[in-house]
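Section: Multi-chain targets

For targets with more than one molecule, the full set of components is provided together so that the structure can be written out for the assembly as a whole rather than chain by chain. Components appear in the order listed by the source. The example entry contains two components.
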Amino acid sequence: PVTAASIVVPYGHVIGNEKWRGSEVAQRLQGKVRLIFEDGLGLVDFHLSNGTCILLISEADLVAGDEFKRRLVRFRNASSLRGIVIVEKTPISDQYYLGVQKLVVLELGMVLLPVANQGEASQLIIQLVSFCVREQSRDRGANPFLRKQRAQLAEPAVLQTVQQIPGVGKTKALLLLQQFGSIHRLCNASINELEEVVGQTAAQQIYTF
Amino acid sequence: SRFPALCVLADSREVCSGPEVISCLRAEHGLRVQVCALGTSDYIVSTCLAVDRLLQSELQSPSNRNKLSQRLQRLQGSFQRICVIVETDRVRPGETSRFFQRTQHYDGMLSALVQAGIKILFSSCQKETAALLKDLALVEHRKGAAIQVPTEPEGHRRDILNFCLSIPNLSYSAALNLCHSFGSLAAMAN
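Its structure, encoded as tokens over all components, is:
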């Protein structure tokens, strides 16, 4: 069955595909995350908390040929879940990595993360789970790469920008902004209006700019 | 040479830190590489995509965390799409290849990048990084986002470019587009 449907994952849990029961990854995950096994997950290996799931590609899959590629494409076409592909990149499977990366990241637009063995895979999954949980609990400040919306004062920036006009330094920029208030009004000022604030030469320069 | 239209902007610091990337892009892939003071990112591949080149050791070391997050947050302010290329550190002559010990911090950084929607690519050397940049440029070209304006404006346009560059949250590529679409500041403001 080619299922890749979304399933409800209890908060802070991971649902693993039955086929991983007893594997090294599963053993290392147990105790660190709350892992439940389920049958019939189809293409997916692990479901994380918030619509994110993991597809695990082993060294053997890579060497065996293109079957795993079909699996990834089928997943991409069948599911709207966010898929993270974890691939076992070893000295043996290394030669295939660039090709896989091109397919997964550039063509399918999914996430690809290399690990050296199943032990590293379980460590990585633990970190991914902890970020999923934190995101669900709206503790978004925890992510150092998410942009925080902060109000930025416009005045210093506008002053900087006005100083880029040829012939305008800090003093003239201040005078111009006091008189015209905004860049839009400054741009539409007539040469006479400009001359009242700055000298004739500068007014000419600003006007032609 | 098959894609004469493809153009990539490189930050001037990359001339020192990634000379092989730039020369490979030019010589092997036939891309036009324009070196300029981007400041915010290492490469700009299209009007929407900025690429940062990170060494694996930079991602591995906790002391870099703040610098990196500030840098990427600023990038997110001016670009729709961001990609990082994680490059394996070069083994210097005389140095035996150091065993890479994967840390919890490293996995945490990767998870944070994934969660923030930042694309991650892995490369084992500067040559591979160049090939990845070319692939990215091709994908962006297909999306219709390639940089297609002249990258070295002169005279009056140069002044207008500098004016645009000082506007907060406006990327270098967006500023280039603006300065080529409008002949004067008055035209732009209206």
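The mean pLDDT of chain B is 86.
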